Amino acid sequence: MPTVSMTVNGKSVSGEVEARTLLVQFIRENLGLTGTHVGCDTSQCGACVVHVDGKSMKSCSLLAVQADGAEVTTIEGLANGEELHPMQEAFRNNHGLQCGFCTPGMVMSAVDLANNNKNPSEEEIREWLEGNICRCTGYHNIVKSIKEGAANM
Amino acid sequence: MYDFNYHKPGSLADAASAIAGAEDGKLVAGGMTLIPTMKQRLAAPSDVVDLGGIGDLVGITVGGGTVTIGAMTTHGAVAASADVKGAIPALAELADNIGDPQVRNRGTIGGSIANNDPAADYPAALVALGATVVTNKRELSAEDFFTGLFDTALDEDEIISSIKFPVPEKAAYVKFANPASRYAMVGVFVAKGSDGVRVAVTGAGDDGVFRVTEMESALAGNFSPDAVSGISVSPDGLNSDIHASAEYRAHLISVMAKRAVAAAG
Ligand SMILES: Cc1cc2nc3c(=O)[nH]c(=O)nc-3n(C[C@H](O)[C@H](O)[C@H](O)COP(=O)(O)OP(=O)(O)OC[C@H]3O[C@@H](n4cnc5c(N)ncnc54)[C@H](O)[C@@H]3O)c2cc1C
Ligand code: FES
Ligand code: FES
Fold first, then answer.
1. Of the candidates B75, B198, B184, which has an alpha carbon nearest to the alpha carbon of residue B131?
2. What is the pLDDT of residues B180-238, one digit of tens each?
3. What is the value of pTM for the model shown?
4. Residue A63, by phi and psi: left (phi above 0), alpha (psi -120 to 50) or beta?
5. Whose CA is nearest to atom 4 of ligand 3?
6. pLDDT of res. B119
C-alpha cells in the first residue's frame, strides 16, 4: 500500500493508505479530524472543502496520494486556540449557519476568497459560492458573514 | 471505487511508459471528471498514472503571436493569467466561468479537452481559435483532435503536453449556462483571425463541438451582430434533454452568436 505524508494544520502526518483512499477519508478516518464533512460525495456540495497548498479544493474528489507532500488546512486549523478565526467569528455574529452541516466548507471556501479579495461585493461572494450548497439558511446570512469576515481578516 | 496501482512519474517519457505498460491504465490530471467516474464504477482502471508530478506540463507562455498553455495548467491559472488576459481575454473569461472555484483550482485544460464532454467550454475555444494540440507523439489541429462525443483522436497511450492558441484580432465566448452545473447548454465562441472568422458551438451538438460555416461567411463580409441575427441553425443533430429541446438549443445558438459578436466588438 502507498504511504502518504503531508502537513495537516501545521503538523506532519503520514499513513499507509489504499491508492483509492480519498483525501477526505484520510482526514476524517485516519486523522480523526471530523470537521470536514461529506455531503454529496459527487463534487457538487462543497461540504468537504479544505485548502491544499493554500487553495480551496473538494477533498471528496481528490485522492490522498494526490495530496502527498502538500500543506493541507482543514476547519480545525483555522482557530488560534480558543480564539475563533475572523471568518468563523463572522459566521457566529451573523447567524450564518443553522444546522451547520455546510459550514466548514463554506468557511474554508470563504477564507480562500478573502485571501485574494479583502472586500468582495455581494455579487462576487454569491458567484464564489457556486460550489457550496446550503439546505438551511437561504444564503443571505452566509453572504453577510463572509463580507464581515473578509473585512476582519 | 475499486482499488488500482498508483504511479506518479516525474517526466512525460516516464508517464508514457507507465501508461503503455499498464493493463488498463488511465491518466489522471485534476481528477474532477475521472475520480467521480471511478466512484460510480463507470471507470475501473487497473493503474492510474498521475500527471501531477510533471512540472513541464504546467505553465503559460506568450510569444510570436501564440499563447501556449501546458496541459496541466488549471482553469483557475488560465483565468488569473495576465498573459492570457492580455492576449486572448475571451479565453481567460471562458476559464473563469467553468464550474465553481474549487473545480477551477483542480481541473486542467488537458483533462477537459481529452474528456471532450459535449457540454464542456474549452472545445469551442480550441476550434474557433484554430488551436493546435501538442502530444508526446505529434501535433493535431483542434478539428482533427475532437472526433465525437467523449471521443478524441488520442491513442490509448498518448498524452497531451500543451495547447497552442494563435492570438486572434478579436474574439468572444458567450454561454448559456445550466443554472445547476454551469456546464454550457449552448456556448458560442466567435474569433476573427488572420485566416478569417470562425464560429464554434459547444453544449448543443450530439456529436460535440461544431462550426457554423454559414455564420462564418456572413461575418467575414460584415462582422456585426446583424450579420448573424437572420441565420437560423437546424435542430437536426442537436441534443434534446431535460434541460432544453433541440429546437430551443438551435434558437439559443443564434442568440449566443449575436451576443458573442457584439462582445468581440
Ligand atoms: C461540479 C463540476 C462542474 C463543472 N463544470 C464545468 C463547466 O462549466 N464547463 C466545463 O467545461 N467543465 C466543467 N467541469 C469539468 C471540469 O472542467 C474538469 O476539470 C474537466 O472536464 C476534466 O479535467 P481534469 O483535469 O479534472 O481531468 P481528469 O478528470 O483528471 O481527466 C479527465 C480525462 O482526461 C484524460 N486526461 C487528463 N489529462 C490528460 C492529458 N494531459 N493527456 C491525455 N489525456 C488526459 C484522463 O485520462 C481522463 O480520461 C465541471 C466539473 C465539476 C465536477
Ligand atoms: S462532499 Fe465533496 S462536494 Fe459534496
Ligand atoms: S446550515 Fe444547514 S446546510 Fe447550511
1. B198
2. 888 999 999 999 998 899 999 999 999 999 999 999 999 999 999 999 988 999 999 99
3. 0.97
4. beta
5. A134
6. 94
CATH code for the domain defined by B57-264: 3.30.465.10
For domain A3-77, give the CATH number.
3.10.20.30
Using CB atoms, which residue from B35, B76, B182 is nearest to A63? B35
Q: Which CATH class is domain A86-152?
A: mainly alpha
CA distances from B211 to B60, B112, B121, B122, B214 (A): 27, 19, 14, 14, 9
Q: So where are chain B's domains? A: 5-50, 57-264
Mean pLDDT (10-residue bins), chain B, 265 residues: 97 97 97 97 97 97 97 98 98 97 98 96 98 98 96 96 98 93 93 95 95 97 93 94 95 97 95
Which ligand 1 atom minimizes the distance to the CA of B57?
A: 41
The correct CATH number of B5-50 out of 3.30.43.10, 1.10.472.80, 3.90.950.10, 3.40.50.2300 is 3.30.43.10
B160 CA distance to ligand 3 middle (Å): 41
How far B167 CA sits from the closest chain A CA (Å)?
A: 29
Using CB atoms, which residue from A42, A66, A130 is nearest to B100? Answer: A130
What is the distance between the alpha carbons of residues B147 and B130, in angstroms, rounded to a whole number?
A: 15
